[in-house]
Amino acid sequence: MKQDFHAFLDEYCKRHPDDVVHVTEKVSPNQEVTALAWALAAQRCCPPLVCDIVGVTKVVTNLFPSRERIARLLGCKDDEIHKTFQVRVRRAASLKVVRRGPVLARAARAGDGGEADGALP
């Protein structure tokens, strides 16, 4: 099974557009994503939060706040979460270390002049 978070997120957003808050405006990396999540929670709303521009990267948070969403993500019923998770963990794909790839092309490095300066080794 291919494990690709970007493909997973795209598919989830297509299947459940009303369950996702998508922020396309620039968001400060200095606790603003957390502030947005807390503001939504104060309204008893806990959607996945997708922020396209947080400093020099994209941030996705709040994927697992409820059993209902975890079951939806795993493709099972609420009472099958533990069993389904255990089955999938036992057949997890092996890690593959790569020297080049799309994810590395978008990596921010300390000293590149971006907002990540000092944050990454």
How would you concisely characterize the structure shown here?
This protein has one domain (5-105).
Which keywords apply here?
single chain, 121 residues, alpha+beta, 3-stranded mixed β-sheet, 3 strands, 15% strand, disordered C terminus
Strand content: 5-15%
Largest sheet: 3 strands, mixed
End-to-end C-alpha gap: 31 Å
Poorly predicted spans: 115-121
Neighbour order of strands in the largest sheet: 1-2-3
Q: What is the tally of helical segments?
A: 5
Query: Structural class from helices and strands?
Result: alpha+beta
- The tally of beta strands, per DSSP, is 3
Average pLDDT metric: 83
Q: Number of domains in the coordinates?
A: 1
The SSE order reads HEHEEHHH
Q: What form results from the Cα inertia axes?
A: flat
CA gyration radius, whole angstroms? 17 Å
What level of helicity do the residues show? Answer: 25-40%
Can you walk me through this structure?
The protein has helices spanning 5-15, 32-42, 67-74, 81-90, 102-105; strands at 21-27, 49-54, 57-61. β2 (49-54) and β3 (57-61) form a beta hairpin. The protein has a 3-stranded mixed beta sheet, with helices on one face. The protein is flat and about 45 Å long. The chain has 5 helices and 3 strands. The protein has one domain (5-105). With 121 residues, the protein is of the alpha+beta class.
